[in-house]
Structure formats: structure tokens, C-alpha cells
Write a structure and sequence with these properties.
The protein is α+β, with helices and mostly antiparallel strands. It has helices spanning about 10-20, 25-30, 40-45, 65-75, 85-105, 110-115, 120-135, 145-150, 160-170, 185-190, and strands spanning about 25, 50-55, 60-65, 145, 175, 195, 200, 205.
């Protein structure tokens, strides 16, 4: 995927969104990166299919798509912006080192970012969730109700489980969705749901072990 169609600010916003776990509001981007993703920049990355943007209240919330994560991976080997100066050239050399590390460890960029952003005990909880999923799933991408999953998490606090599930959903191989047929849900199913961006999600699927 070429990077020449994107300006310096757009590239900074995409990489910044990546460092924030692939999902952030304009407020978070402004605080952490110095720019909000709005106007022509938002429309361009939306049009290229790199980011989805949803208005939440008075601000936009942005999420990297699979293509957006792919762009970030490609950018690790990209050339520094022409006006980036010596600092920009040095930072892009660091990105190249990161790409070499990911290749050597067979770690995806999304996995690296999430592991770097979450405390070790949350990483352990993510591993517990994955192990519980594979005890219940018949095959990869099998949908498992959170009602069935939660009892296998060793009594982990509800808030910690919910936040870990939200973080995991940002990974390319993890999916959370609402039950399509809401009439089939029991009260327990509704109680076990995790709320993500105001949407109750009842089912978890993981693509590969």
C-alpha cells in the first residue's frame, strides 16, 4: 500500500491512532498527538478505507480498519516525510527496527501495541479469556456466548474482564458482536454482555489459536 497519497499530518494521525491501540476519540488524539482527525483528513482516510469514524456526542471516535493496520505495518518500512528533518528520519529508522523485531518474533503490529499498552495482569487476563474460549469453541471463529465464557475466568473482576474484552476486540483476530436474534437472549445473556461504544455485545469469536 503506497503512502505517497497521504500528507504528513494524516500519516501522523494514523500512526498516532495505532499507538493508542487503534481506536480513539478526537479529544484523545488532540491530547496525545496534537491534532484531531477531522475535515479533509478524516474524509480522505475514511474514503481510503483506513479508518471508520463514528460521531459520539459532540466528537468523532475513530477506529483503524484491517486495511488501516496494514497501512501502519507498511509504514514501518516507509520513508520519512520530506519536511521531517533529522528527527523524522531518525524516528523512521526506529520504525524500521520495530518492523524487524516483529518479523523476528512473528508478532503482529496490533498484538505488539496491545501488549505494550496493557499492564501484565491484563495480558494474563487476555490469555485466560483466550484459553476459556478455546475450551468452549468447536473450531476457530466459532461464536461463543459470554454467558458461557465468564464462569471460566477464575472469578476475575467484572470490570477488568469487560475492559480486557474491549482491548482484545481491537486485535484483528478477535471479534465481539451482538446476538442477531435478540428474542433468543435470556436475562443471563443480557447481563453477561459487554458494552462497547454503547452497544451490548453477547458473542465472542477468535480466528486462530
Amino acid at each position: 500500500m503506497t503512502t505517497t497519497a497521504l500528507g504528513t499530518r494524516e500519516r501522523a494521525l494514523l500512526l498516532g491512532l495505532m499507538t493508542l491501540g487503534g481506536s480513539a476519540s478526537n479529544t484523545e488524539l488532540k491530547d496525545r498527538i496534537g491534532y484531531a482527525l477531522d475535515g479533509p483528513a478524516r474524509r480522505r482516510v475514511n474514503g481510503l478505507g483506513l479508518v471508520t469514524s463514528d460521531r459520539q456526542g459532540r466528537t468523532y471516535h475513530h477506529t483503524l480498519t484491517d486495511d488501516g493496520w496494514g497501512w501502519c505495518v507498511d509504514e514501518l518500512e516507509g520513508a520519512a516525510p520530506a519536511r521531517g528533518g533529522s528527527l523524522g528520519r531518525t524516528l523512521y529508522q526506529v520504525l524500521g527496527l520495530l518492523r524487524s523485531y516483529l518479523d523476528a518474533t512473528d508478532l503482529s503490529l496490533a498484538e505488539f501495541v496491545m501488549k505494550s499498552r496493557t499492564p501484565s495482569h491484563d495480558n494474563d487476563l487476555a490469555g485466560t479469556i483466550r484459553e476459556a474460549y478455546w475450551r468452549l469453541a468447536r473450531e476457530p471463529q466459532d461464536w461463543v456466548l459470554l454467558t458461557r465464557l465468564r464462569p471460566h475466568l477464575g472469578g476475575a473482576p467484572r470490570d477488568a474482564v469487560d475492559e480486557t474484552l474491549r482491548q482484545m476486540e481491537r486485535l484483528p483476530d478477535v471479534h465481539l458482536v451482538p446476538e442477531a436474534d435478540q428474542k433468543t437472549l435470556t436475562d443471563a445473556d443480557r447481563e453477561a454482555a459487554v458494552v462497547v461504544s454503547g452497544v451490548s455485545k453477547h458473542l465472542l469469536a477468535i480466528e486462530a489459536r
